[in-house]
């Protein structure tokens, strides 16, 4: 885990002071809401349907128990006793008072956390693989580079007023667990001739014009990591469209210019930027990387797990993943028990997860883009004890990557941009498929729901995607099929006319019934869909 | 507070001309860049320019920040002015990009300007100013 | 009828213009007729409301009902957490929104 030094702390403390002052000026009437809005957004403070909403950054989704407890404390003291983990590895509080914002930030700063650039047209929280440092398939831990990007992008003077928001993800494995190619910049660390470098995919994104990021450069030498990023951003800042908010993301620039032309522009800028000394010396990367050294794993501990308890065995098979260290495992805590609000956790649950991480996972937790929590390093001999504690806290749903492990944005229950509610649809679908045997039979099936075209619920990347729209003042839901946010990234295809809330649940079930009919061998839904195509499903849905 | 200037030399007493006019006209020493105009077109002429005025018709339009850095990176040492919808909470970033004078549409509160510019002792990245990034402080 | 709504500047709470002040309860909202814009301007300038806007509503025996679902959600609270709404004791409160 990265630890702040005096400089990091001073910068975050100064930010608290600055935001306090901005709030004071707003409350005193020295600023209008129009002037204040971009300032509060740059610090993750929105005005939503019921109150202010504060989005707190969890850089690359990694945090320790002390930080997790602080998230619970904030939920208890300043909010209504819960928080919402988001698809960008952040947490949101829905009931914040403007007058408390300064105190909240001050509390966060005591545990090396902040809300810097969690909104606004700037570089947002850097996201990464939730299994970083634990997965066997990574070539290196991507988080030191994510931290390097975090520091470089924090208050970057040139890129604070970009055409639009800018999201970067860094991974270091071929299996993509972070929807890397659906980011403005997706970076995959790669090795070539024994040297580390970075492949840059630029111009992906969801929203109203979903795009899979094309490869812009297959190998950027690691010592040029930030210089190349700077060049990518400068070309975007200069040439990205500013005449139409819906065409302002970098994906549109790259789509209009063409990936080759954009890459050539970046190459030219990079040749210049390289001379400016943007990249820190290797010693800085080494300093950061040292914080992410593997924890003190015990060698030679048992690799077997007692599977006698059948409920435990189900959870083990579904939510526990292989770790690179013998005797250890990666535990996924699903926040999607049937009836749950996807991504929501009470302060008590957040505290429990902090305690378990402290006792059983080398004091580390991760937040995933699928709105779940990960305990990255659990000794296999402790798995049963961990599971029992999770059961006690109502956190042991054994449904990772199953149809009820739904990604859903807050939707019209909370969000001022939404056109339709997402959460009730997620709840109804989870209920319809509540039978765990049925869910496991369906296998991996990623269902994702957004309450508006902005696609915070990643519906384009859902094997089954649902988009809520406003149809003459009533909520209506469109179905799409065949999306993926993994290494086989694809954008789902809309099936046809939309449905009402109960209709969409029926439509999902017609799709899964058809899948069971058509499935060969141990195909996932997505495999079958790709094999047989769109038409049999469309036929099944609309008859 | 009206205009802000962070330079010791005397202010130029000449109106800034539009980029196209400047490029056609060899005697002008002050030029105005609109958002979207390519600052690099000025690079061959930097030795005769005393003032570049970068227009900010809307505070949200951040193209001028890149224009400023490009000019400073090319060695431009003359006055670099941000004019238009320039807000007090943007001054620090603009200073870091190389702006050293400000002609905001609406006057800025002097006290707020002062505290804003003094608030941060540290920066994370190199820019067009003299601030030393913290990685440099860490490793010398 | 026309209602004037916004949020309290300090707390962010949803508020409704009652004719003489601001209430948390849409039932107390007053028809602003064609006076909305001028009330809005005065109240916003005085910082008694933040981000105010005028909406259409229909008059019902239970009080004004905003025409758009978004404003009905604002008036009640999240339909998926009725315990946090203004009607925590009414399990059917969400029906009013739809």
Chart the SSEs and their pairings.
The complex is a heterotrimer of chains A (543), B (140) and C (98).
Chain A: H1 6-27, H2 33-41, E1 45-47, E2 52-56, E3 62-64, H3 65-78, E4 82-85, E5 91-96, H4 101-109, E6 127-128, H5 143-153, E7 168-171, E8 185-192, E9 195-202, E10 215-221, H6 225-239, H7 250-257, H8 259-273, H9 282-291, H10 310-319, E11 320-322, E12 328-333, E13 344-346, H11 347-360, E14 364-367, E15 373-379, H12 383-392, E16 407-408, H13 423-432, H14 436-442, E17 447-450, E18 464-471, E19 474-481, E20 493-494, H15 501-518, H16 525-532, H17 535-542
Parallel strand pairs in A: 6-7, 7-8, 16-17, 17-18
Antiparallel strand pairs in A: 1-2, 2-5, 3-14, 4-5, 4-13, 8-9, 9-10, 11-12, 12-15, 14-15, 18-19, 19-20
Chain B: E1 4-5, E2 17-18, H1 19-24, E3 30-33, E4 51-56, H2 63-73, E5 79-84, H3 91-97, E6 101-104, H4 110-119, H5 134-139
Parallel strand pairs in B: 2-3, 3-4, 4-5, 5-6
Antiparallel strand pairs in B: 1-6
Chain C: E1 2-7, E2 14-17, E3 22-23, H1 36-45, E4 50-60, E5 63-66, H2 69-76
Antiparallel strand pairs in C: 1-2, 1-4, 2-3, 4-5
Describe this structure in a few short sentences:
The complex is a heterotrimer of chains A (543), B (140) and C (98). By secondary structure, chain A is α+β, with helices and mostly antiparallel strands.
């Amino acid at each position: 885990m990265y630890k702040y030094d005096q400089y990091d702390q001073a910068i975050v403390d100064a930010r608290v002071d600055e935001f306090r002052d901005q709030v004071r000026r707003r409350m005193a009437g020295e600023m209008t809401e129009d002037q204040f809005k971009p300032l509060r957004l740059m610090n993750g403070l929105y005005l939503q349907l019921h109150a202010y909403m504060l989005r707190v950054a969890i850089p690359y989704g990694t945090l320790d128990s002390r930080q997790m407890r602080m998230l619970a404390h904030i939920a208890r003291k300043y909010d209504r006793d819960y928080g919402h983990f988001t698809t960008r590895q952040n947490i949101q509080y829905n009931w914040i008072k403007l007058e408390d914002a300064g105190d909240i930030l001050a509390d966060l700063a005591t545990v090396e956390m902040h809300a810097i650039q969690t909104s606004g047209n700037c570089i947002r929280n850097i996201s990464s693989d939730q299994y970083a440092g634990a997965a066997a398939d990574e070539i290196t831990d991507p988080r030191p580079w994510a931290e390097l990007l975090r520091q470089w992008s924090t208050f970057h003077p040139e890129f604070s007023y970009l055409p639009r928001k800018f999201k970067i993800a860094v991974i270091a494995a071929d299996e993509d667990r972070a929807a890397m190619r659906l980011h403005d910049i997706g970076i995959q660390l790669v090795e070539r001739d024994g040297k580390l470098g970075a492949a840059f995919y630029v111009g992906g994104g969801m929203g109203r014009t979903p795009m899979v990021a094309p490869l812009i450069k297959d190998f950027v030498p690691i010592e040029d990591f930030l210089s190349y990023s700077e060049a990518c951003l400068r070309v975007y800042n200069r040439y990205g469209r500013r005449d139409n908010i819906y065409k302002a993301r970098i994906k549109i620039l790259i789509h209009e210019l063409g990936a080759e032309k954009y890459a050539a522009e970046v190459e030219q800028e990079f040749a210049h930027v390289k001379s400016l000394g943007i990249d820190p010396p290797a010693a800085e990367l080494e300093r950061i990387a040292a914080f992410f050294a593997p924890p003190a794993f015990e060698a030679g501990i048992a690799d077997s797990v007692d599977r006698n308890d059948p409920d435990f065995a189900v959870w083990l098979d579904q939510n526990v993943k292989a770790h690179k260290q013998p005797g250890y495992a990666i535990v996924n805590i699903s926040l999607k028990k049937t009836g749950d609000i996807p991504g929501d956790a009470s302060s008590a649950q957040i505290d429990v997860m902090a305690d378990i991480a402290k006792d059983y996972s080398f004091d580390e937790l991760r937040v995933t883009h699928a709105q779940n929590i990960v305990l990255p390093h659990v000794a296999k001999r402790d798995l049963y004890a961990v599971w029992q504690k999770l059961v006690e806290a109502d956190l042991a749903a054994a449904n990772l990557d199953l149809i009820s492990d739904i990604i859903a944005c807050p939707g019209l229950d909370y969000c001022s941009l939404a056109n339709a509610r997402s959460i009730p649809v997620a709840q109804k679908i989870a209920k319809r498929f509540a039978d765990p045997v049925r869910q496991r039979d369906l296998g991996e099936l990623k269902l994702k729901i957004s309450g508006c075209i902005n696609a915070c619920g990643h519906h384009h990347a859902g094997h089954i995607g649902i988009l809520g729209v406003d149809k003459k003042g009533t909520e209506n839901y469109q179905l799409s099929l065949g999306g993926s946010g993994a290494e086989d990234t694809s954008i789902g295809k809309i099936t046809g006319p939309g449905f009402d809330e109960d209709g969409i649940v029926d439509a999902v079930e017609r799709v899964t019934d058809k899948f069971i009919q058509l499935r060969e061998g141990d195909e996932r839904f997505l495999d079958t869909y790709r094999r047989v195509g769109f038409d049999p499903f469309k036929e099944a849905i609309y008859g | 507070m009206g205009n802000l200037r962070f330079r010791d030399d005397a202010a130029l007493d000449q109106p800034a001309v539009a980029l196209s006019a400047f490029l056609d006209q060899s005697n002008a020493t002050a030029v105005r860049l609109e958002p979207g105009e390519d600052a690099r077109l000025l690079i061959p002429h930097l030795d005769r320019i005393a003032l570049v005025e970068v227009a900010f018709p809307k505070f949200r339009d951040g193209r001028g920040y890149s224009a400023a850095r490009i000019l400073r990176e090319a060695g431009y040492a003359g006055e670099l002015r941000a004019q238009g919808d320039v807000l007090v909470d943007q001054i620090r970033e603009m200073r870091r990009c190389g702006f050293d004078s400000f002609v905001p549409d609406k006057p800025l509160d002097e006290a707020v300007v002062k505290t804003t510019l003094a608030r941060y002792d540290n920066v994370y990245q190199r820019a067009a100013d003299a601030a030393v990034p913290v990685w440099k402080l860490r490793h010398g | 009828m026309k209602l004037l709504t916004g949020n309290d500047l300090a707390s962010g709470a949803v508020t409704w213009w009652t004719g003489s002040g601001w209430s948390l309860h849409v039932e107390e909202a007053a028809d602003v007729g064609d006076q909305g814009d001028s009330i809005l301007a005065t109240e916003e300038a005085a910082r008694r409301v933040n981000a105010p806007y005028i909406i259409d509503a229909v008059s019902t025996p239970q009080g004004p009902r905003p025409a758009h679902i978004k404003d009905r959600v604002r008036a009640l609270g999240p339909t998926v957490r009725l315990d946090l709404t203004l009607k925590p004791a009414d399990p059917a409160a969400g029906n009013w929104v739809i």
